[in-house]
Amino acid sequence: MRITKITHSEAPIASRISNAVIDFSRMTVSIVAVHSDLVVDGEPLVGYGFHSNGRYAQSGLLATRILPRVEEAPPERLLDPETGVVDPVRVQRVAMENEKPGGHGDRAVAVGTLDMAMWDLAAKAAGLPLHRLLHERFGRTAEPASSVWVYAAGGYYHPEKPLQGLRDEIRGYLDLGYRDVKIKIGGAPLEEDLQRIETVLELLPEGSRLAVDANGRFGVEEALRYGRALTDYHLLWYEEPCDPLDYRTHAVLADEYEGTLATGENLFSVPDVRNLRRHGGLRPHRDVLQMDPSLSYGVPEYAGMLDELEAGGWSAERFCPHGGNQINLALAAAFGLGGCESYPQVFEPFGGFADSTPVQDGRVRLPEAPGIGVELKPALHNLLRERL
Ligand SMILES: O=C([O-])CC(=O)C(=O)O
Ligand SMILES: [Mg+2]
């Protein structure tokens, strides 16, 4: 097998929603296709990648640093010597050559996007759905999971969607088969946020839980003030109360807030996660970690994060990646994670899972088509084919 060409572009995922720190009016996403000379069913195999919402497209980094390294590398540096098929772990090493440690920001997104396309290609070449390939390589359980717990993330602030709109949105998620939901906080005064929370709680049936997400907005005092106000709601979790790299504030909050805290979607490397473990005071039996491979150098770095945290007493069941996309569903099944996020309405067509695997009782089944499964989501597949 040879990589014949790597193409990349950008796609808009703009919308009028906001969280506590950004609006999505100019949000974009990078998309990558890795073309190969391996012909299956009369067509050369192509692997597709994109990254999760919240970080902008990384065209410059891909074009000037990340892709040229891979394009210029001799094939044997990119291929598994036993199978002759592209090895995403080797590719990631090549993509990161001559990069200094630290500063894990947009570069991690560019590499994570390419990594997704490499896994899609490798799984297609092996004729396996990605969750089975990842399980063969990294699995910690006897079998990959056949379905994964997902929750509906939404409840953004929207200029034309006050409480009634929020109610309609959440009811829509329950009708789609979700049990648990997440809404934003921190973008309105506390009293208003509590009204939003109570409105949603009134709708949730027995057994359904609500999580809230402050997107890193608060300093220590405000994080504690919200924590005190949230305690009696018995939420599923209180997410990103403070800046992702402010480990001390996490520790102070974890000391006082008895409910579950969640963080990690903006930690992009093993060293950042090690610092969270050492200094963040989070509780391995209670809290939730949301690192997301497409934003953080891809699956190899994610496996390293799991190793780092397992050595520190965390179990894979406490991991629930941010991102609401198909690669994270595969990852959750392969690594035995607690679950993964889902965006039933926002960030289409990148959010969501295969059209053939609807949510049932809060879970999604794993599709068995080779690769990540973008072909099972025609709106996404068509967009990728047209732009790449
Ligand atoms: O609003 C965002 O940037 C996305 C987010 O935090 C989440 O999905 O948890
Ligand atoms: Mg979040």
Q: Quick gist of this model?
A:
α1 (59-72) packs across α3 and α9 (270-279) packs parallel to α10. With 388 residues, the protein is α/β, with parallel strands linked by helices.
Features:
TIM Barrel; Enolase-like, domain 1; 388 residues; 12 helices; alpha/beta; 2 domains; 11 strands; binds magnesium ion; binds oxaloacetate ion
What proportion of the residues form beta strands (DSSP E)?
A: 15-25%
- Ligand list: oxaloacetate ion, magnesium ion
> For this structure, what is the CATH homologous superfamily of the largest domain?
Enolase-like C-terminal domain
The low-confidence parts are: none
Structure class = alpha/beta
Order of H and E elements? EEEHHHHEHEHEHEHEHEHHEEH
CATH architecture of the largest domain: Alpha-Beta Barrel
Tertiary shape: globular
Q: Tell me, what is the CATH class of the largest domain? A: Alpha Beta
Biggest sheet statistics: 8 strands, mixed
CATH topology of the largest domain: the name is TIM Barrel
**Total DSSP helices:** 12
Helix content: 25-40%
**Tally of distinct domains:** 2
Radius of gyration: 20 Å
Site (Increases basicity of active site His): 292
Binding site for Mg(2+): 213, 239, 265
Cofactor: Mg(2+)
Keywords: Magnesium, Metal-binding
